[in-house]
Design goal:
By secondary structure, this protein is mostly helical. It has a single domain, classed as Up-down Bundle (Four Helix Bundle (Hemerythrin (Met), subunit A)), CATH 1.20.120. It is 63% helix and 0% strand. The chain is built from eight helices and no strands. The longest helix is centred in the middle third of the chain and has 28 residues, at 91-118. The radius of gyration is 18 Å and the shape is globular.
Length: 245
């Protein structure tokens, strides 16, 4: 979500754990360890260096992003933890999130693992793998930057009137209206290359298309329902890619 805190709505430290229950913690743990389970079970081996690197990097960046949020917007942790219970979340968004952010990556990891097991894709040059990791780093970095400046960085599309929802204009939001999505797209597209699996690009392409659709629908929602967003959109013209869209 594209928003910014007002002075009277700054995060309070005791809000960090207000909405984080056992179910939310368990969902988070399961999501984190779903990656190695899918990768190594489908590959049929633990001897896969790039998969270990990707998993380790994902753990580090995920924990780092949460620590940053705990520092700057502690109440955001509760907001993100309650995404499954948010009654005012858009119905279309729940469907897109499930396919693009949960089942999509799961299929990517399984396909990449099967590709590693059966050798469907020829080994890729080391330079390609290094370049892919750089792109993944860039993508994750943009996402963390967006989360760090956006107190209303919810996991679902909803107008957070209960949290004083306003429009963000700082950080990466100065350049595009949905920077976290372009960061995610960069990482999506680079992961199959890093894992040396051309076939994994097939499910990745589905997630990419759904992310673009989500961007368009979220942008339309914010234009219609979030105060100040229409003026912001006139200043920052592009949703994802400067000069293109």
């Amino acid at each position: 979500m594209n928003t910014n805190p007002t002075p009277e709505n700054k995060s309070q430290p005791d809000a960090a754990t207000a909405g984080i229950g056992l179910k939310a913690i368990l969902r988070f743990i399961i999501y984190i360890f779903l990656m190695p389970l899918a990768l190594f079970l489908s590959a049929g081996t633990l001897d896969w260096v790039n998969a270990w690197i990707l998993f380790g990097f994902t753990i580090i960046t995920t924990l780092a992003s949460r620590l940053i949020v705990l520092r700057v917007h502690p109440d955001l942790l509760g907001e993100r933890a309650r995404y499954a219970e948010a009654e005012d979340a858009k119905g279309w968004d729940r469907l897109i999130v499930a396919v693009a952010a949960i089942y999509g990556p799961l299929v990517v990891w399984i396909v990449a693992g099967l590709d590693w097991r059966f050798g469907w894709t020829s080994p890729m040059p080391l330079s390609w793998q290094i370049a892919a990791m750089v792109v993944i780093l860039l993508g994750y970095g943009v996402g963390i930057w967006a989360m760090a400046v956006n107190r209303f960085f919810s996991a679902v599309v909803r107008i957070q009137t209960d949290r004083g929802h306003t429009t963000v204009t700082t950080g990466p939001y100065r350049f595009v209206r949905h920077p976290s999505y372009i960061g995610g797209l960069l990482a999506y597209l680079a992961i199959p290359v890093f894992l040396e699996s051309i076939w994994a690009l097939v499910p990745v392409s589905i997630s990419v298309i759904l992310t673009i659709v989500r961007t368009a629908l979220e942008d339309r929602t914010l234009l219609a329902e979030l105060e100040g967003y229409r003026d912001y959109a006139q200043r920052v013209r592009y949703r994802l890619i400067p000069g293109i869209w």
